[in-house]
Amino acid sequence: MAEHIVLLRGINLGSRNRIAMPKLRTALEAAGLDDIRTYLQSGNVVLSSGTNPADVVRAVIASEFGLDIAVVTRTRAQVAKIVAHNPLASVAKDPKRYQVSFCDAKPSGAVVRLIEETAAPGERVVVHGREIYAWHPDTIARSKLWALLAGQKLGVTATARNWATVQKLLELADAPAPS
């Protein structure tokens, strides 16, 4: 069975879409998924599955928590390639201002141009396959690029994690499963 990193979009933001990670782990185990580990409260799950677990996770969240949450998954091997690729390593020095948006499909050429045009001076962005690497040296909160990447205008489902979280999720996927 492969290790999968499951990224939930838009949960536990203030009082919205609340999901307790211990309850999520229990519900996913009951659905037949294995070796479930969570990281932080922002929808990061590492688990083992013989197939892509996205549909199972969405169904569990809908039935157990009454929420319709977008789910994006990558295998451990795919995340390792994302980390190894790291196209902005030479400029992105603060992992909390360096984001990777994980998309469920490649953005269209028109959307890629929009993303590139939206970046402010100093910001850097690289679209590589289904990932969008974005460096926000000054601020994320007031970045028009970040607002675009976090919004619904990409034409694909996307959810972002900062670089520190991406690296931690790869470490978690490499760690022995809990016994």
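Next protein, fold it too.
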Amino acid sequence: MHHGSATTPEPGRLFETFADGVYTLAYRIIRDRHLAEDVVQETFIRVIRSLGSYRGDGPIAAWIYRIGYRQAIAVTRRRREEPLDPVVVAVRIDRPTGTVEEHVLAGELASRLDEAIASLSEPVRAAFVLRDVEGLSTGEVAAALDISESAVKMRLVRARESMRTHLEEYLT
């Protein structure tokens, strides 16, 4: 007899559901579009290879994000020597519609937001991106990063304090 809940999730559907989230996480850690895309590919190659061994213990989202996080960290370790090109940071900002002042303000805010996220340590940044950017629950973030929920909460407090400090002139 065939039970729907016991079947292995279909790889194409997993990719559609989680690729954007893995990309966002990787991009926020690595800060390079092409390398983030590579991380997504490598993550899903690993997901597909390991799908048979996925035990279903814990949410599949957490399992996929954990693989993505490890891939992104591996990439950052490999390229530690290469400094971040500030031009790349400036080019990334998506232009909103509106007045010149709105463009400038949105551009300033976007680059300040990027700087604020980049200033977080890797572990704190990962928790912040998964929880506040991707919207995972505290439990899912804990599972994805392989840490306790209280450790996630402590990292989020640190991240949010740091973000507030970086962005206070825009938050008034």
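About the second fold: The longest helix spans residues 11-30.
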